[in-house]
UniProtKB/TrEMBL annotation:
Domain of life the protein comes from: Bacteria
One Gene Ontology term of the molecular function aspect: peptidase activity
A GO biological process held by the record: proteolysis
Keyword Zinc: no
SUPFAM superfamilies to which the protein is assigned, alphabetical: Acid proteases, PDZ domain-like
Keywords for the protein's UniProt record, in alphabetical order: Hydrolase, Protease
Stretches assigned to the Peptidase A2 domain: 54-128
Descriptive protein name: Aspartyl protease family protein
Keyword flag Protease: yes
């Protein structure tokens, strides 16, 4: 979800790639690790720190793995240093800790040097997470992520467990990012970071967006959350995205403002789990390749808001986190922070999955605020 600025350690050197028969034997022995997707579309699994099970996120956007300050304080670990680190949403105070061991997918790292910082629940869609596993621990493996079966495994570099579309991949930049290229329409974008800790699909810098023909498409706005806080970014739906030979026909793209996080880390953009989850993915930077095998959902278009409200569910109410630019909610005067307690006369607590914020244009929805005022919102397409 974020990558530390000025404090990042380089990924370790790659081990020698074993010969083919040894590689196949090790592939067969490599255990699968089950995961779930957080509400923010991040890969959540169980790891072990100093003998204690912890909820972890597999985060290729982090160059130095991180323990939450909550876990560190509960374990009474000694924290060294204290620096400002760059994250999505701003900077955050961080330090260093030295656990005895971290175990991931049956691989144990002894005496790792980890960073520590607060991990706000908003960064994971309210999921409680204590460990971000970054490239310092996994970059010398081939990372096989089976999103459809919700499992991953760490294989020896050079493994090719399935056939798919191949795109270039390397560890690059001052902060040891997973880096690939992307074709948007007819325009080639280099320096695209692969960030499995980012639940959005594709994010680009303002400069990269201005070079695309797609910049003429209608845009709105949305909110992104990182360890450093919230950030407002532009939002568009674009066709014709291609990674290597793998096409994606319709993709949600976020555009950061000038001087945003992605530009600061020297990248033109980031590819997140919102895009990757439609494929089986192999990330093997030391073999120079990313392999994408399309899944059944690859051509499913992204949901588009027709309400213009981005909401968080809090038991018996919905809290407005952001009012999207150009949408019907903005036109009707809705503001961030307002709360909704009933929809079409039905209490929020009695509702299941919320479909109405992205429902058919033309539908009118009665929204009762928690202050007792009922307002009618007519849905429409606006980006």
């Amino acid at each position: 979800m974020f990558l530390f600025f000025l404090l990042c350690a380089a990924a370790p050197d790659a081990p020698p790639i074993p010969h083919a028969s040894a590689t196949r034997a090790r592939e067969a022995e490599a255990p699968w690790v089950a995961f779930t997707l957080t509400p923010a579309e991040q890969i959540c699994f169980q790891a072990v720190v100093d003998g204690h099970p912890v909820a972890a996120i597999l985060d290729t956007g982090v160059s130095t793995s991180l323990l939450s300050r909550r876990f560190v304080d509960a374990a009474r670990m000694r924290v060294r240093g204290g620096h400002a680190a760059l994250a999505i949403g701003g900077t955050v105070a961080s330090g260093w800790v030295d656990p005895s061991s971290v175990t991931i997918a049956a691989h144990t790292v002894q005496n790792p040097r980890l960073m520590t910082a607060p991990l706000p629940p908003a960064t994971t869609g309210q999921a409680a997470i204590d460990l971000l596993v970054g490239s310092d621990m996994i970059a010398h493996y081939a990372l096989d992520i089976d999103y459809a079966a919700q499992r991953f495994r760490l294989l020896p570099s050079g493994s090719l467990p399935f056939a798919g579309n191949i795109a270039p991949l390397r560890i690059g930049g001052e902060w040891s990012s997973y880096v690939t290229d992307l074709l948007v329409g007819t325009h080639h974008l280099s320096r695209m970071a692969i960030d499995t800790g980012d639940g959005s699909a594709i994010t680009v810098t303002r400069g990269a967006w201005s070079a695309l023909a797609e910049q003429q498409r209608p845009t709105s706005s949305t909110i992104s959350y990182g360890v450093g806080g919230a950030a407002i970014v532009d939002l568009a739906i674009v066709p014709g995205v291609r990674s290597g030979a793998a096409p994606a026909r319709t993709v949600e793209m976020r555009i950061e403002p000038s001087g945003g996080y992605t530009a600061t880390i020297g990248m033109n953009g980031r590819i997140g789990s919102g895009f990757l989850r439609h494929y089986r993915v192999l990330l093997d930077p030391h073999a120079g390749r990313m392999v994408l095998l399309p899944g059944s959902s690859v051509d499913t278009p992204p949901l588009r808001s027709t309400s213009g409200l981005i909401l968080r569910r809090d038991d018996d109410r919905l809290t407005v986190l952001h009012v999207m630019r150009g949408g019907p909610a903005e036109a009707d005067g809705w503001q961030a922070g307002e709360q909704i307690c009933a929809v079409d006369g039905l209490p929020v607590s009695a509702q299941g999955t919320l479909h109405w914020p992205v429902d058919t244009a033309g539908r009118s929805v009665r929204l009762a605020t928690c202050t007792g005022v009922t307002r009618t919102l007519t849905l429409r397409a606006f980006y």
